[in-house]
Design brief:
By secondary structure, the chain is an alpha+beta fold. About 35% of the residues lie in helices and about 25% in strands. The protein has an eight-stranded mixed beta sheet with strand order 8-10-7-11-9-12-13-14, with helices on both faces. Strands 3-6-4-5 form a four-stranded mixed beta sheet. Helix 3 links the parallel strand 4 and strand 5. The longest helix is centred in the first third of the chain and has 19 residues. It is globular and about 70 Å long. The protein binds adenosine-5'-diphosphate and magnesium ion. Adenosine-5'-diphosphate (ADP) binds next to strand 4 and strand 5.
Length: about 325
């Protein structure tokens, strides 16, 4: 064994061999050629993978604990959007050099979130190169109960969790070099995956997606997959005070509609479930807001304040035209 591989095994043993929740269904975890995992009879594996690259998906000087948190959170958000219960994760880490302080903080952020949602890190790969983090998540769901993108029906109400546009606002403020309130900054760097909401919506939501690229685009994926259209009422969008005041001062709706990284859930459900959904919000500790309705006619109609239809301009999402 050469010096390099000795230090790689030492690094894995030190930071990644015992990360996340204990799970009895992990027959063999980190340390062998493969992990061995037991999928209960009758359940399907829900699998999703995401890569975060330094300088593209997070700032080079971003707090390592936040990078660890977010690299797992984005995957858990995908599982939530499918109605799957999180179970296992694998981690491919590319590092320019070994930095134990960075690794300890990264492992803390990853491990704390993993334990919160009962996830075990069961394997991975460690290589040298420009800083990037790839996490694959594995969840469990009954095939028939998984909430896909293609089930929205005309008349369904469109709902979103939490508030929209906060992460996009933080990114703007950081680029402008201004101060950012820590609680607001956490909306970009430490998104809370809506895991309990996602699984609670099995059997209630007809279609669901997590908001990684903004409501207009992500709801557009549901509309395309389901072969329907939708009408969204901008005045109904749930906004933090910070985002609402930015919109009021600039007249620009792109933050809640087309900025990324919110990791809230957008879902559709028949109107008879509305009271049940409203009552779920309190128990889950996250706001659930009806923002529009599914229509049979394709296309996304945005109704501005006062009910005036607006549309996304061809040059981008930041300018709207009142003459549809
Ligand atoms: P192999 O060469 O057989 O692929 P590796 O030397 O890459 O094995 O990894 C040794 C063990 O450590 C494997 O079980 C692998 O899953 C695990 N591992 C490697 N890197 C990580 C990591 N960053 N996080 C978690 N487990 C890791
Ligand atoms: Mg390997």
């Amino acid at each position: 064994m050469d010096e390099g591989s000795r230090s790689e095994f030492d690094l894995i043993g030190r930071f990644f061999a015992d990360l996340g929740a204990f799970r009895a269904d992990v027959l063999l975890g980190v340390g062998d050629d493969c992990a061995l995992l037991e999928v209960p009879a009758g359940l399907s594996l829900a699998v999703s993978i995401d890569t975060l690259v330094a300088g593209i998906h997070f700032f080079h000087d971003c707090d390592a604990e936040a990078v660890g948190h977010k690299s797992l959170a984005v995957g858990l958000s995908d599982l939530a959007a499918m109605g799957a219960a999180p179970a296992w994760a694998t981690l491919a880490l590319t590092l320019p050099e070994r930095d134990d302080d960075w690794l300890a903080a990264f492992a803390r952020g990853f491990g704390d979130l993993a334990r919160t949602y009962g996830v075990r890190l069961v394997g991975g790969d460690t290589t040298r190169g420009p800083l990037s983090v790839t996490v694959q998540v594995h969840g469990l769901v009954r095939h028939a109960a998984a909430v896909r993108r293609d089930g929205a029906r005309p008349g369904d109400i469109v709902w979103v969790s939490g508030t929209l546009g906060d992460a996009g606002l933080v990114l703007r403020l950081l680029r402008e070099g201004g101060p950012v309130d820590p609680a607001l900054r956490a909306r970009l760097e430490r998104p809370v995956p809506r895991v309990a909401l996602g699984t609670a919506l099995r059997g209630i939501a007809t279609a669901m997606i997590d908001l990684s690229d903004g409501l207009a685009g992500d709801l557009g994926h549901i509309l395309a997959a389901s072969g329907v259209g939708a009408e969204i009422d901008l005045a109904a969008l749930p906004l933090s005070h910070a985002v609402a005041s930015r919109i009021a001062s600039e007249g620009d709706w792109s933050l809640p509609l087309s900025s990324g990284d919110d990791y809230e859930l957008c879902f559709c459900a028949p109107s008879e479930h509305a009271a049940l959904i409203v009552s779920m919000a309190a128990g889950l500790g996250c706001a659930l807001t009806a923002v529009g309705r599914i229509r049979a006619e394709p296309g996304l109609i945005l109704k501005g304040p006062g009910g005036v239809p607006m549309r996304l301009s061809s040059t981008g999402y930041d300018h709207f035209s009142n003459n549809t």
